[in-house]
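Listing 4. Sequential folding, example run.
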Amino acid sequence: MKLLLTDSGVRNESMREALVDLLGKPIAEADALCIPTAGYGGPYGDPGGPWRFISGRSPSPMTGLGWRSVGVLELTALPGIDRERWVSWVREADALLVNGGDALYLCHWMRESGLADLFPSLRDTVYVGLSAGSMALTTRVGEFFVGWEPPDGGDSALGVVDFSLFPHLDHPDCPENTMAAAERWAAGIEGPAYAIDAQTAIKVTDGGGVEVVSEGSWRLFDPVG
């Protein structure tokens, strides 16, 4: 997969250009599936968040970017659907738009549904994550972000990329997400980690290249750098 890991959606022209580059065509010619699942998880999950995400009424621009078509892929429903059917939906999509919410809840259902098993084969698919939707692909979320607790415990994510993410840096709605808090969080990650704000995304190409796309603030914590 090609990845655009955002804090809170595609919020500026630099990120939009990065998305178009990953797609290899205009957004208006691309078909997307949105995944609202993370919005139900954790202590603050409610039905309003997933609805706003799906309908494009969220303040985080994702489904309302002008796609040719948008469908919904709810991961908790997939175990009850014929696998060949939903796998074909995923393979036909140009992009997966993955909602925020609780990262470990999302990881759990990506594994349980079988979607995570498909990731290595989705070479041309663009994965666009929003907050928890981005964190789910990293190595660890860190204790700071543990809300919903997985059955086997821990804070391990899917490890599609070899770094971790601290989103919502210095966001007014998240006063605890300071740079000082990010430094303490990164010290417990024991691996490369990025703190990013709403105007920043991490672009990962299918060749493994990592690029920070930002019109805001960010920081890389690298224990071996």
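-- end of first protein; second protein begins --
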Amino acid sequence: MHRLLLLIGLLLIGLLPALWPAVALAVDVHEGDLLFVTAGHSGLSAAIDDATGTQGAPSFDHVALVASAPKGWEVLHADEKGSRRQSLVQFRQEARDKQRQIVVYRLRAPQQAAIRDAVATARTMLGKPYNTSYVLNEDSYYCSDFIERAFRAHHVFALQPMNFRNPQTGEISQHWIDLYRGMGMDVPQGQPGTNPNDMSAAPVLQRIGVLE
């Protein structure tokens, strides 16, 4: 019996190096963390990646804010269903269903003082519709716009000229041309805005890891 237990123990020790990468990927979220969701390969997601992605770097098409709630962590964000709250469990499951990864980023120490106000501000914006034009207004929001506004009073993130051109070709994809033509608008190239890829690269954020 003792020999059997010793053999099992040795086998488990031998397996630890193989198991370690899975353990190392586990991430504990904190209030105020930003969850960046990797981009898809078609439709709106691919068009966002085409215009704002950086070659060789992870590409994101969505970002959300972690907040504490009586029943556990919740996620505050703006997507095609509007500005809303979800449990972290639901948010993670939706990403899994779409075969997307969630990467956790955290504000660096000087900016963490803004988190409490940002979460409170984000809660006041819930219920607004999604901004399909990405032209800033006070009646609807898109994902990174929602986050920028939540932190705006503390000047954490900066607005930048929006880019709809592929960085390699300089061309605007047909997706954007058709989208804005359908709204009776020109593509708002150069107007102020924000996007998940630029936000993830902001120096105020540090990458924590992948949320499994």
